[in-house]
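Q: Joint fold for the lines below.
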Amino acid sequence: MIQTGLIQRAHNDLVTDVTYDFYGLRLATCSLDQRIKVWQVDESNGNWNVEDDWKAHDATVSKISWAHPEFGTILASASFDRTVKIWEQTSFASTADSQPNGAGTGSPQATSGGSSRWVERAVLVDARGTVRAVEFAPHHFGLKLATVSSDNHVRIYECLEQSSLATWQLSEEVDVSTLPSVSLSSSYSVAFATPTQTSATLEGASATLVAQALQQSQNPATQGRPGMGNREADGGWCISWCKDRYWGEIIAAGCGISGAIKIIQLSSSRRPTTLLTLDPSPSPAGLPAEAGTSLASDGDTPIPFAITSVAWAPTCGRSYHLIATGGRDGHVRIWRVKPAEEEPDVEGEGGDSKWSANVVADFDHHKSAVGRVEWNITGTVLSSAGNDGRVRLWKATIGNVWRPAGSIGVEQSEDTQDADVNMGENAIAE
Amino acid sequence: MSSTNHHLNLFPPLIQVGQAEQFIQSGKTLSSAQSPLNQSYAVFPSARTDVSSIKASDVEEQPIFFASSETSPSSERRLFIGDTSIIFAALQNLTNTAQSRGQEWLHDQETHNVIRKLTLDYVNFTRECWIHTSQTSVQSQGSSQFSGDHYRSLYTCLALFAVLYVPEYGYEDAPVGDDLMEWLNVHFIEPSTEEGDHLSGLDRPWEDETFWPYLVRVTLRGLSKAATFFLATLSTHPSDNLRRLAQQLSPLLQSQPRLQSFEAERDFAYASHRWKDKVKALRIELDSVSESDRHDGIENWWDRLSDIVGILEGRSEVIRRVCEDLGADWREISVSWGVFADARLRRQDLPEVVSQVLDDMPQDPTNLEDMVHAALFSGDPTKALSHAAQLDPWLAAHMADLMQALSLIEKDANEDSGLNIRDFHVLGYAQYLHADPALWRITVAYMFSCGETGVRSADEVLLHVPLKLRFVGSITHGQGEQNGGDNLKSGDLAGVVKDINATCYEYQREEVRRTICRIAAQTFVQEKEYGLALSYSSSAEDWPGLGRVVDRVLQEYITAGPEQFTRYVAGIAPSLQALRMQSSAQGIFIHRLMFAVRYAEFHQRLGNQDLQDAAWDLVSMFQDGLAPKSWWAVLLCDSQQLLQHDVTLLFPYASACILLQHLEEVIARTDQGSGDEYLRVLISKLGSGGTTEVLHALQGVRLALAKYFARCTMIGTGGKQIMERKFIAAV
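A: Joint structure:
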């Protein structure tokens, strides 16, 4: 493990998200300072230089996502201002050809200083709460993206006109907390997903959430109360697409403080359905969807917590999926998810073959909330970042036993020589 | 090598020693992003999501750190990786052939010999690399990434593997002692040459304290020449007994039977037996030396000589004690066992012997080389691989590859991971290679040998290889690269894209190739290299994509005007010819391309004042059904200036009628609410005015047409008078 570079001043306020583009040659960063910056690496010396920098939103920019390059150089940004914006990099000459109109889109505002080559192509305004995550769908599903926001909703947008990027149709809008499960045989006690975290009615819930969102965005300096039971802990937290084409459009979403992740199948022909709930509560893991919620209400009353990060590993030909989660309970978990068998089980009533899952790794090394989990491109290395101020890496043995594989921190080394050695490797940018 | 388990603290530090809590309390946390390019990470202080963050003061820096879990290979390492990948490829060829010819064939003599040769190639390469690195690292202090010692350990492991697991064909069941001793003597030289030099310079070497240990060690190592040389020096020793015994011992050492000297093992066994008898005779003589003559005042020579004879007799307790006294390790004991104690020791019996030795004298768990050796000696290839993986993923991958070819390891996939042992280690190595993006060709070659998981992983790596298309135009350094750039511009696939394409063909990854072509096409669209974009789209057989490229070209007419437009079309026109040849090309998108080309021709003629032909072009675009409906209004507006041309009537009467028909349809359909379909392009061309302005423009065309028909009537060009009247009425 070695340090290879440094950007000393990335933003004027805390950075909220950093994402590499498809090739790892550029970085998009966003911040509490409401700006987006795009950086490019100088491959000759490894330094990162700002390519573009603009004010993107009227509140904190929470997440940023690159579209697949076959659609062009496109970014989507999610913000606490409850919007998602689509940005396209254009060559200088055609900066003017931005298209007006489009559903609910204001005219494209000139980006800061006019020097930016990034043009705002669309603003998606459907969220009724802060938008916490945005992720473009795998490219084989077309130019689509998913968002999740504190109003509990996952929204799927589809670009109707790739050449202009102006029109985005809201193709699905799913309340994750109340999403009905697949109905299973009567032998199961069917408890249609009552949200465990109580929001009574949709209107009531969203109203309070909007109020919170307002409070959050208008008064960012307020010191929030840490810990559970905080109303801000409610709402949708995280999403991750299934990268595989074979199973159709499937997305994992985390919402509320149930500690569970729902695997949601999206289909143009029917309503979104939950294929599976990944619930780590001390009970049979990887339950059929509806059982997960009923469990929380009885038994050992597990302490509620939010899963704030989920990452679906690229399948890379494996017969199973790997989904990693990170949450406020301080655990990094890796789920091994088996898709439904090809041939439906004849015995099972309704003939629905089911997805199943089990936890293959459960680490509490962070000892505090885990803010992010992420896979490498082949799904063989998981990285997790937590409130212990560490980034930890995980790798599997041949028996699919996951083990720590190094860590990165920002503490002052007690052994100062160590730091000096690292310095030698650094290319200090700027 | 195995730095992956280490902790790295980034610089400059953000948290003072022991103050992590304060960092978190201030609403900050640490976050990271993984690079798809290599094994590196961007690490940054971030805002906690569970509490609102305190706004950072402006003076505070918000850094982003970059760290990599692997050091990318240095030049000497790259050379090593590249060279050995050729051997790997050769073995791949062999095993692929085996798949078609059946596994039996893999165990043929001929095949076995090839595998053995490849194994020895690896051994030789690691040796070369060891020698090379040892030499260069002396010259330039520590510039090499891996010390010579690292390659030495790879060399010893592979050489041991070759001795134990890849013997010559037919020798699998032969005694292994001599081969092992040779291995030990090559890699772990004892006693040192310096010691020998020192002793040979002395007149009475036996008086030196190193003399007897030296003599014992060379005997133990089967180094009969050195042994006899120093036994000869004893000819001046004061003790008669010793002189006599030394004289008898020398021929015994020299005549110890070696397996290589015999045609059949039976003969070897017989000779060994006879030789052992001679050793016994010597023992009897030795025992008859009186107690009083066993000490020469410096050393009890008799004890030492007894040890030597004890070794030759193959007494296990002597061998073990002597080794312990000499500071030799478990390897030396095990190997001498196979030479002296049990000269017919077979490979399959070795593990039992070794396990006994290791019980008393265990291997060093902090020394990975030692651990690999011990596992290989113990007949546990799988364990050897897992230690090798820690020593160097290169070693594990290549050894696993050979082991699978030799059926030494489980071929079936592990139930939990879906990978077999070989694939697991080869993929581990491929992942290590991925740390250096420049090694993508080798990375995918290894991945493609690893079943479905490997193939799909290789797909991901291929897809993420930077295409470097964007900077083609700006390359200025070096004539060669300039040419490369020109080639690319002129439509040839060149550089990285060409390589990736070739790789995709080689491994039949058409889906990947198409995706890459689509990305390339998109990139060229952004660069306004429409010709290239078009050829990539067609290479990807992405007809809707091709349509979008043409749309973008047409868009150029709207935004940049006819001159730019015709220039861009000049770039795509050659593709049209090629595409027409291609039967798979889908009609509708080709149609649009044809329209773009024809429309550009029209504008060119217009620009050249070739008005008659321009008019003909315009009408024929309508006649041939080439013009998309959304463009009709634009074409009609273009016709206005031709209609108003004073000098001649440019349109035949029938052609004017065609214009009129289309104008009528546009206006009628707009009235019916399909305005968007028909007027969209013209609206964006004319700018802000919207439908009203467009309709106004079309009224202008209608007026021009009416005047034109009027002129036709006066001059008498028209055709059927009735038709004419009817149309005039309509106008």
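Q: Anything notable?
A: The mean pLDDT of chain A is 78. The first strand of chain A starts at residue 2 and ends at 7.
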